[in-house]
Write a structure and sequence with these properties.
This protein is of the alpha+beta class and 81 residues long. 14% of the residues lie in helices and 33% in strands. The chain has 1 helix and 5 strands; from the N terminus they run ββαβββ. Strands 2-1-5-3-4 form a 5-stranded mixed sheet, with helices on one face.
């Protein structure tokens, strides 16, 4: 199984970690695990890739075109009332 090594970080820079993941891993599963590890499990977030591309939970790393060395940012969703 092919893998890529990516760095995931929070938008504020308080959390940053490089991880190796399989190309067929769903981005939604990755987002949930990244949020848990970054202590953001209770905050709704989305993932942003290179060129500020919003990454879709239903895509996997391969279909999203993510490559080794890419930076993925966890962005909290701002909710307004």
């Amino acid at each position: 199984m092919e893998t890529v090594t990516v760095t995931v970080r929070t938008v504020d820079g308080n959390f940053k970690k490089s991880v190796e993941v399989p190309l067929d891993m769903l981005l939604g599963d990755f987002r949930e695990e990244a949020q848990r590890v970054a202590s953001l499990a209770s905050v709704h977030c989305y993932l942003v890739g290179r060129n500020n591309q919003l990454l879709q939970d239903s895509d996997n790393f391969e279909s999203a075109g993510i490559q080794s060395g890419d930076l993925i940012t966890l962005m909290p969703v701002c909710e307004t009332s």
